[in-house]
Amino acid sequence: MTLAGRGAVVTGGSRGIGLAVARALAEAGAAVVVAARAPDGLEAVARALCAAGRRAWAVPCDVADPEGVRTLAREAEARLGHVDILVNNAGISHSASVQKTTLEEWQRILTVNATGPFLCTQAFLPGMRARGWGRVVNIASVAGLGGGKYIAAYSASKHAVIGFTRSVAAEVAGTGVTVNAVCPGYVDTDMTRQSVSRIAAKTGMSPVDALRAALDTTGQRRLIPPEEVASAVLALCHGAGSATNGEAVVIAEAGSRR
Ligand code: NDP
Question: Known catalytic residues?
Answer without folding.
Answer: 154
